[in-house]
Predict the structure of Lipopolysaccharide biosynthesis protein.
Amino acid sequence: MPKQSLIRFINIALRGITLASKFLLIFFLAKFLEPKELGLYGLLTVTISYALYLLGFDFYTFTTREILKRERHEWGGLLKDQGALSIVLYSIFLPLLSVVFIKGLLPWSVAGWFFVILVLEHLTQEISRLLITISEQLLASLMLFLRSGIWAVIVTALMFFRADTRDLNIVLGAWTSGSLLALVLGAYRLRQLNISGWRKKIDWQWIGNGLKIAVPLLAATLALRGLFTVDRYWFADLASLETLGAYVLFMGISSALLSFLDAGVFAFIYPELISAHHNKDTAAFRLKLRALLLQTLIFSGAFAILLMLIINPLLTWLDKPLYLEHKDLFPWTLLVTLLYSIGMIPHYALYAQGLDRPIIHSHIASLLIFIPVTWLLSHYWPIQAVPMGLCVAFLFILLWKCLAFIRLTPAQYR
């Protein structure tokens, strides 16, 4: 097997194991924790995911393009500049995030875990993105396995054999440990790369130029991720924290598709799309775009069919009446992730060309559509309203990006 093929196989295997671990974790949490605790875990995870954008400001979207254009001896200066920006953002947003607990959106009992995990996740995420950019996908996958995979396996095993470990604090402690190990590995690899340019003075003007590009993208990302944050809180308000546990379970199962596509498809193809466009290689751009389309559709279709076949046996095994009672939510959560996944095809095609405006506009508009649509649907189908509203929002995003790609992409790149 050629070296590149072997690396890709190992990468997909690692991501697959990580995916399976997260899949097992959500099921064992549903099996051994009360639905209310699973609902709290869901609120905590989406709040951390959303807060990550405040600590990073999506500045990597600018840094990634710059690194691909620069020589290695310039990388240190770029990373130093990004680190300086992060320190500023930490000093602003970490204190502000305490409002989540002051307002009672999350209980103070998880505040310590929240801030520690948030910082560790941000640091490991940024290092992983850098590694993917410089074609070190394998190590990025290993980091992901540490921060999202191995600890989930350990916790799952502990909860299976020892009833006294069936506690949310054990889960959050294991998450912290996994993220810390991933950070150590990533930092060690960065040291090995011998990147130079660290002595360069911080270029605040370059940071400012980057923010002009990153902040509009951030607004779009916050709107998009807002959909996956507001939905949990809104669902809990329309139903209950216990019923939210069922929604978290079904959304967790469905969103496994996104993790798999990100590992096996997107992480490999989108840097090549950027490079092909930068080099004005129209043939390579079309080839990679076709691969993105076919692989996304094939993996999504196979995933959806498999889940529809196994969902009933899985819910029966859980032996929790609440989850079986609300299993009609599952097709909606699956449709949400399918629409999201397919929408990433025109998304990356636009992003690779630097056509950010349609991405920004579609994401912001989707949140503006989601809110009134969900509010209207909640009067008739309060339990289904949130996932139905998400389906409308992501269908809107998909259509907007497809039309933008057709309208704005030069014919030779299509």
